[in-house]
Amino acid sequence: MKVNHCHNSSIPITGHAAHHASRSHLDNDKPANPSASQPASYPTPPPAVNSLPRHKRSLSSTRLHDPQHASPRLRPGGLSPPPAGKRRARGLVAEGSTFTLNGKPILIFSGAFHYFRVHPAYWRDTLRKMRAAGLNAVETYTPWNLHEPRQGEFDFGQLGESMSPFLDIRSFLQMAQEEDLFVIFRPGSYICSEWEFGGMPSFLLRDYTMQVRTYYEGFRKAAAAYFDALLPHVVDLQFTRGGPIIAVQVENEYGHFGYDTDPRDTLYLEFLRDNMIANGFQESLFFTSDTPTGTQDLGAIPGVLMTANFNSDVEENLDLLKEMQPNRPLMVMEFWTGWFDHWLSGVHATVSPERYSDIFERIMKYNSSINMYMFIGGTSFGFMAGANTLDVWPKYAPDVSSYDYDAVLTEAGDYTAKYNLTMEIIRKYNPLTGIVDHPIPPPQRPKTAYPAVQITEAISLPTLVSQHESIETLEGPVNMEALPINNNNGQAHGYILYSTNVHLNPDAKLKIRGHVRDMAQVIVDGEVITKPYAKPGDVNGFGFWNGRDQELTLPGSNALAELSILVENLGRVNYGKPHKFHQKKGLWEGPVSVDSLQLNEWKMTPLEFKTSKINSLTGWSPFNGSLSSPAVYRGVLEVSGEPQDTWVDMRTWGKGVVFINGFNLGRFWHPGPTKTLYLPAPLLKEGANEVVVFEQYTAASEIVFSDVPILH
Questions:
Q1: pLDDT at position 80
Q2: What is the pLDDT of residue 396?
Q3: Residue 204, helix vs strand vs coil
Q4: Phi, then psi, of 409 in degrees rounded to 5
Q5: Structure pTM?
Q6: Torsion-angle region of residue 523: left (phi > 0), alpha (psi -120 to 50) or beta?
Q7: pLDDT at 612 over 50
Q8: Ordered domains of the chain (ranges, CATH)
Q9: End-to-end CA, the chain
Q10: CA-CA distance, 137 to 284, in Å (whole number)?
Q11: Is a pLDDT exceeding 80 seen at residue 69?
Q12: Residue positions annotated with a catalytic role
């Protein structure tokens, strides 16, 4: 996923490619509350199973709603995979004007669904909604930074950490097959996807000469180690071995990773492909994806299928793709169904159903296969939302935690107008319509607005810090990634508190050279000196990412004072030119001084807010409404009966993070556009549920819930 056009917001979005598309490519006329705009009739179901002629029924139709009975391995048009362990001569082939699978023509209708953004309890329900829409494939990325949280330590669902249940990729792929869906597999190593650091692990940045996404030895070895762990875990799930995987992407939009028409690092791309082959993926179709009108064939590998990513200029992109590879079928690997949101943008980005339908049909008139990006966006839980760098103000644009994307299904998996349109268009253009059944769409899951939770306890920042290990230095503050923690992997996410003691004269000047990465609060003897964001121009001032070499006047009385600087990592950039990936978080670009005194002695405390730490916090005190933030607040949500999906409404709070039973839902920030955090029911339990909020500025006395999202 990428940025290649501007949308109507206070933060201009610059080109992901060398050009810009027009503003009309995104519409902001959709109501802020998507649920309210969706008629109850969505989706329009196909005929009831019992009313179908017997020759159009399938076991998958009759078992669709029974979780104990997954769909059998029946494939559209007789494209069943071979029995496990028995190989077929060829899988997906891209020759001539049409793809073939098992020697038979196939038009691919796929949708993007990131298993790591949707609670695993909802995987099957979502896959069934995709199949009911007429899709025959699902596409997914794999996030390196989740699957290898610490160098050499891999998580495919077994580590027992908060996100581990989301990472059982093998079960996800098998479930897709059980629901009659092929799989388009995009393992990276880089995935973009509005995901923290484009899916790459931050421990790479401990190498100060690191050149990510290149043939640089340090990156090459790290990527190979990841592939050597990931690929053998799923290699037997290729179509030719009885599994669902039919195609595998090499890297991701590599044509955009460079400058103008300079040659790209093809040696690196070939290295990734060869590693996949060495790990047993010689039987699946390899492909690359880029925007043809932006990068032509700069990200291509000789002999590897090129596919297209766009949501505008349909004819220009597909004509150029045909020109570049005239004897191969067309595939739109990313038809952008909506768009993503940045903090401070002022709007929830949308693409109208009318525009969606128009582009979809224009693509289908080329007899092109298609992957809808996104079919369901889901959520960038925790601190996993990425960011973009811009050529114009405010230079850096962090993403919100919601990845609703105005997709075909909402963040919570609900139907939209685009779902019905998708069903209609696929039925119109799928050559197997009338032969293959459309299962009945599953019912929508119930939503509720739970009663408000009263804040009853709190922990002050000093008490919180006292429960964390600190690192002392005599050489000035260092970046998060360089800290000797997490088995020498550094700090990946969250906040870092820099503290020192210094003599402050009246009107002393604090000077931070370079930029803060990304936001800073200055605290003197427990009092917050910096002000919260109030207007767009604030990001140019002290404590924000866009300010450079800034000064701040401190209160002083000719006495020794404790000076603390709390720095938040708002998300590493997930897309851009090579120099945009040289990013570290915290205070590190230049020295920090008070008046003429350079401050070198610091105590640095990483605040990562891991689930294990949240669940073991001590020192809670009764909350009487007078505690100054930053601080941690706690209340209890009582759930009677079966838990239901809900949203945490943080409009009366300032800025921070919400945890439910220790699980990090994501960030909130009063300016928005997003005002709620999605809380899927499986994260709740019947009875008492602990709600914890880390608030940086202004705490409220209660936590409110909503039965609809507030995205603007």
A1: 58
A2: 95
A3: helix
A4: -110, 145
A5: 0.90
A6: beta
A7: yes
A8: 85-411+413-429 (3.20.20.80), 453-458+617-706 (2.60.120.260), 468-607 (2.60.120.260)
A9: 22
A10: 15
A11: no
A12: 253, 334
